[in-house]
Structures are given as C-alpha cells and as structure tokens.
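Hi,

I'm pasting everything inline rather than attaching a file, because the server keeps stripping attachments. The sequence lines come first, and each chain or strand is labelled.
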Amino acid sequence: MKPRRRRRWARLAKRVASHVILIGACAFALFPIYFIVVTSLSTLPIAGITAHVLVPSPSTITTASYGTVLYHLSPNFLTLLTNSLIFSGSSAAIGLALAAFTGFALSKFNFPGRRTFVYFILLISLFPGVLLVIPFYFMFSSLGLIDTYLGLIIPYSAGAVVFSGILVKNYMDSIPDDIEEAALVDGLSRTQAFFRVLIPLCYPVLGLAAFLAFIGPYTDFALAHVFITSNNLWTLALGIYNINSTDQGAQNYGLVTAFAVVMSLPIVVFYMVFQRYIIGGLTLGAVRG
Amino acid sequence: MADLRDQTLGFRLRHEWPAYVYLLPVTVVLLVLNAYPIAYTIYISMTDFGTGGRGSLLSYHYIGLTNYIYAITNQSSTVLALIGNSFFWAGGCVALFLLVGLGLASVLNQPLRGKSIYRTLILLPWAFPAFITLLVWAGMWGYEYGIINGVLNSVGIHSVNWLLSSPDAAWAALFITNVWLSFPFYTVVFLATMQAIPKDLYEAASIDGAGTLSQFRRITLPYLMPTIVFVGLMGFLFTFNNFYPIYLITNGGPGLSTQIFITESYNDAFGAHGASPLYSTAAMYSVLDFLIIIVLTVVVIWKSDLTRNWLR
Amino acid sequence: MTGITLQNISKRFKTETAVDDVSLAIQDGEFVVILGASGSGKSTILRIIAGLEVQTSGHVYIGDMLVDDYEPRDRNLAMVFQSYALYPHLSAYENIAFGLRVRRVPREDDPERLRRFSRDEIDTKVRSAGQMLGIGGMLEKRPAELSGGQRQRVALARAIVRDPEAFLLDEPLSNLDAKIRSNARIELKRLHARLRQTFVFVTHDQTEAMTLGDRLAILNHGRLLQCDSPDRVLSHPANQYVASFVGSPEMVFLEGNVEPAGTGYTFVKEPVRIPVRGVPRMGPVTVGVRPWDVRVERSSSPSAVPARVTGVERLGSSDQLFLELGAPSSPTVAPTLPPLPVRAVVRSYDFNVGDGVFVSFDADRALFFDAEGARLDSMSVATRLL
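And the predicted assembly:
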C-alpha cells in the first residue's frame, strides 16, 4: 500500500474507533435511564423482568404505574411532594442567604482572622454530613424537634452552606472591585452596594447555590429516615425508598421506576434548562491548568 | 476591596469590621450545627453509650479511650477491614473515574461529527438525582429479577449473584454503578481543561513530527496534571465518605466485605442492630473517619494549590 | 464646584510607603493631572481623595470641609475608573441614572429635609448628559454591547450627571485605541472648559498630561516632585527625574564637570563644552538638553563638535537622530575618545544614517543637575555657595 493510502486508512480507523467508543459510552450512560422509563410504562411484574422489557410493544405500554404513584399511595403523593417542597424550599432560601453573606464577607473584606475562619469552615465541613445524623438525633430529641418540620429544616439549611459559600466567594472574586467602588462613589454604603450591585451580578452562582441547596434535602434519606416517624411528614425520598423495600415494589417494579421518573422530572428539567450555568459553575473550581 | 494585607491590625479592624456582621449568622450555624455535634460525637465515642454494648440509653459513662483501644487491639475488630474497604472503595473509584474521564475527554477533544450530541448524552446521568438512580440500580443488580442478569441471560450468560454471594461481584457492581454516576463530571472537567490548551502547541508539535500519542504524552498530559491531581484528590475525599452507593446497593455485604466507615457507623446507630444501637461504636467510627479525612486533606492542601483560590 | 486640598498625606503599609507626605492645593475649576510611573502612588492619592482608601496620616479637604472621616458616598465626588466599572447588569441609561436614583438632595421649599430626584428629573438629566457626550442613541444598550469609546463616554456621563464637587479620573483614556484616544483627549478638555469644574486626572502618559492639565503634579515613589503648569514643568523641571519623565523624545543627559574657563565657567564632557552663566557649583554635574535644542548642521561652526549619524527615527513631522559625538567625520582618522551618544530632533528627511555632521548645544536652554538629581538654578547655587 502506498503511504498516503495507508494514512487515509489509519485516519478512517481512528474515526471509526472514536465513534465506537462514544456510542459505547452513550449506551452505558443511557441504559439505566432507558430502563427506568421503559419499565415505568410497562405492567410486567418484577418476576417477568427479562431483556424483553427493553423492547416495548405498543400493546404493553401503559401509564397504570403512574396512576398508582400519583393517586393510590399511602401517604399520598401530594403529601410527599408538599413536604419535600417545604423542606427543600425553605432550606434553599435560608442556605442561599447564608451563602451570599459568607461569600461577600470572604471575598470583599480583608478582616483580621479571615484565614483562620476559612480554615475553620474547611475543617468543620470535612466531617461527613451523614454522620452528623447521630449527634443531631440526640440534640434534637432533647429539644423535642424530632418529627417536626423545624427539626429537619434547621439541619438541611446548614447542609450546603460551606460549599455554596465558597462557590459564591469564588464567583465574587471574579467581579472587579472597581464596580463595587463605583457604587460607593455613586452614593451607596457597602451594604447597599452588596444588595444593589453585587447580588444582581451574582444571580448565576446564586441560582446554582440555590439549586444545590434544594437538591440536598430533596434527595436526603439518611436524616429523614431517622428524624421522621409520622407518615404525614414523609418526603418523596422516604416514599420511593419505602416502595422499593416493600412487597408492593417487589411485585411491581413499574411503581418504583414511575416514582423515580416523577420525582426526577423537575430536577432534570431544571438541569436541562440551566445546564450551561450548572456545569460551568461546578467545573469552574476543578478546571485548572 | 483595597489590598489591606499590609495594614496594621487596628486599621483593619476599624475598616473591615462589617465582615464580622455578615459572617455572624453562618458562624452561629456552623458552631451549633457542626462544631458542637462534632464535639458531641467525640464525647460519645469515649463513653459506653449503646444498648447493645455495656452502657444503656439512660445511663452511660465516660470510659476514655477504651473503645479505641479495644477496636485496635482486638483481633476480631472490624476497624482494619473498614480501613481497607474504605481506601479500596475510594482508590478504586478514583482510578476508574480518571481512566474513563480522561479517555472519553480525549476522544471528544478531536474534530468529530456529532460531538455535541455525544457530549449531551454522556452528561445525562448527571441530571438525575443520585439517590433515585441508585435505588433503581440496586434493583437492576438483583439476582433473580434484575435487568442486568436478564440481559446477560438473553445472550446466553448465566445469572450472577451480584450482591449477595461474592465480594468480587459486589465490588464490581459498586464500581460500575459509581462510575456511571460520576464519569460525566470527570469527562466534562477534563474536556474543559483540554480545550484550554493553546492550539499552537499542537501545531508546533506536529511540525516537529510528533504523532497523536506523543502529543498526548508530551503536551496534553503535562497540561492536565494539575487538574488530574486536584480532581483526583477531591474525588478521593468525596468517595471515601460517599454514603448512598454502598448503603443502597450492598449495604456493606456480603458480610462485611464492602462495608466502609460511613455505612458501618450509620448502621451501628440506626440500622441493622435495630433495638440495640451501638452509639459509642458508631461515634468512634465517625471520629476515625474524620481523622483520616483530616490527614488526607492536609496532604491535599500541602500538595496542591487548593488554598490559593480560597485564601488569596 | 470646589477645590480640593491635600495636607501632608501619607499612606504607609508595614513594609512600604505608597504616598509620602504629599501636600497639594487644587483650585476650584482647575484641571490637575497627577502624573507618575506605575507604582508611584498616583492612583492611591486619587483613591484617598475619593475615600476608597484611608490615608495613614494627613488631611483631605473638599472646599473648606475636612472629609477624613467621610465615607465615599458622603463626599459627593464622581469618579471615572480605568476599567470604566460600568454595572454590567444595567443598561447605559440605568448606569448613568444609578447615582441619581440613590442620592437624596435638599428640598427646595425646606432645605432641612431631603428628597429623591423625580423620575422626570432623572430622565432629563440622563438624556442631556447622553446628548452632551454623543451617546444619546445607545442608552438602552448594555455595557457589553458598547465599544470601548462608547463605554468611556457612558462612564463620563455617569460622572457628569451627578453634578459632583469634583471629577476624579483614573487613567480613563488608557484602555482606548490610540486613534480614538487623541480625540477623546480633546473632547475631555472641551468638556472641562464647558463644565468649569475641578478635574483631577491620573495618568502615566506624559503627552496626555501635557495636553490636558492646567497643572501637572509629578509623583515618584509616593513623593510629589513638582506641581506646575506644563510649560513650567518642561522649562523648569524641579529635578532630573521630572526632566527625563516629561517631554518627548526624552531629554539628553551628559555627565561631566564644571571647570573655570577664562572669566567664566564651562561644562566639560569631552568633546562637548558648554559655557555656563552665573556661578554654578564646581565639580561633577549633569547637563540636560531637550533634543530639539540640539543643533545639527552640515558645516562646522566655532562651538560645534563633529559627529556621525548612527540612526534615524521618523517621528512624522520631525526626525529623531541618534548621533555619536567625537566620531571623526572621516573614517580614516582614528578616534581619540570613546564616542558620546546624543540625540537630536530635526526637520524630517534632512539627514541620513552615516552622515558626518556638526553638533552644538543651546547653552541658554541647558539645565544643570547635581549628583543627586536636584536642579542647579544658577542663582540658588550661587547663594548656596556663599
């Protein structure tokens, strides 16, 4: 073979190999998602789950599982959703305010003790959150906060505060001091400049911080499992865990997957819409070179 | 604001004090909801608190380091197994993350038709909350009814009892699941870093006669090294305490073969022991876990420029 | 409309002094340019006036008011930043209106009470400022959609609309393309003539300083070296640093000795001799001559020194010649001394590289500096010697 021809062949082989690898990666990435969607639309009992499930025919497609999830659960789906939204929403709001103040102070002030403070929050955030459940259990028991809304909202609010505080700080670092100073010369106090100029400039990162603060409680099991005993406080995470681990789920895997789809949907939609910001925000700290 | 690093303490106090006001809420939150509970955990780990052990829920005593000494000296202690499993779990996962992430990123970092579609699809697992997909993955690995065995059967392979019989199979299931959860992140990070490498470096190298592989080895890899080290170490720290994959899929089984500190600790307090929780043991595992993480973090800070970002 | 007075201002850090005992009285309506190299402390002075930084010692007065303890917002100054510092999330209109929206002014009927500007007042002010600066048509655009020149105008409009006590401008032209910059310079000068307000303008560009300033305050290592009109700074620089920093092309310096010669004295740096009037200091002295005061001729004259043209830089309307004094006019004669490099500014295309020429210096315009760089005024030297 002539060298030029050989090079062309090599290039073609490389391209084919690349596509094969990427198709494999996509198949791996999509398989569980595809499985969830397909199973949620089938009526097959769990005993019938074979590879056949993966090739749905129009005659077996049904939304029956969704009907069950939405209307025939106990406690009912609306209660679970309401509770999850209460916990996640209030925790996101409180956590967001804390993160914004923390980021502002750490980014735009040079107060004595700043370094020590950063080391302090870094050290403290190293303790695994799941393991805080143990001391929380005793602290909140003695305060009578077990099995109450407040008892969960308080620890949830603190959950992401260090991470999102640092996230906000890094973002604010990228806003030139000039802009804040222009506002000071224009007639604002530093606090006013924070609210009227810096906060609006931080909307993207604050959105990301809110999203992260929301998703934590939304999918928390470790704390809710221990803290919630009465059914009317159950969250979506407890709901799906319960279905999965009881007979109801074992007999009809469609229920679990339908629940998974409904529960994931708002997160996935939000993610899709703001994908650019979320990926950018989360990889910002990691990309260096 | 102005660079006041060089100012005297009094000057800085006079002009920068509002920062303390802004930090007051978060400080209170961290003290009450982090520092105090951590101290409390350390205290519990030095008592005989636990209905399954020597003390009881109502009366327990300070016993110093007895729990730690027992855990370290006792031959049948689980501590060594937990240390081994935790490091194996975190190290194995990170190795796979880096391998898959680097591989896919370098394939994606070349002119290729449909690149953006591939990228979007690869990122999709990231969009789903991990807790939910992990529950589904647990079902997928099932022996009798799991879809993975279903697919294997359809191509003529016998079912594998992934989660309940062999430690190797259980680890394999855990690794595959966790790679699925994490590889989108690593691929994106490495891809972004690769795209930041100046193109003229490659042009210069190809003029010098470097092939694809030697370009990767001599340009891409050195450029990526800081990111690889940073992301790898952070990934290790995160995975070391990643609770849900193990809790939901194997829950440490079969036996103790996939148990790590965080799952063992949670189970001792709230899980498998049911009516006889071992609070003091759970607290001790928490403390040991914390200590290991602190040591690793110090290494990370020492080895990387992590703090440069934070401390300016 | 008010003057600004700096009284013994210093800004010290633990290890360095950014501003060292600077006193400066800026008159009402004056255009003062603070000129210095980077790190000279010029921006720090501006920021101390604005209240963005606090001096370690000394006092700042705006008008008769001591403002040391005033927050920036209470000083009613307007500032144009080098980066323009426009609010990226607001339109040009809102950027200009921002200061008006947040500020309170005394009521006409009851000066004790404060009121905010009405929507109509703000609109009128913003539009007329926009008109004045020629950005009336792009007020709805965000900063990101504007060109550098347009952003700079928005930043100026934001300052003007506030009707401040004084304008502080921190290198506002340095981010502009060279072509727009000279235009912007003229417009800024015109704006000052029209507003008749106090302008304090910081720059490192001496051309900018010369064309804009009523007075230049020249700073080096935090110290104020001289504050005078551009002409005066050029003709009577306080010291060698100022002499070399101001004027383009840079002044020519020759290090030599003053020796008695006949009835008077002469500066000697072989092969150059420059007669000295008055009674200057004897011994080592540096002479400075503006390159345009260096005469270059084809034919010899009594005090002229032979030289060779080693380089020509075309400046446009004139040429800068690089000369070597003492280089023999004919290559066959061996040089007795190492050639002395000198520059001269002459009419374009009069000379070429390699030309043999004769160089003389305008003794009346030569400046003398001592070893520390201080200028030796004939009179002052004379008194000092007495």
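The CA atoms of residues 48 and 54 of chain C lie 6 Å apart.

If the labels don't parse on your end, tell me and I'll reformat.
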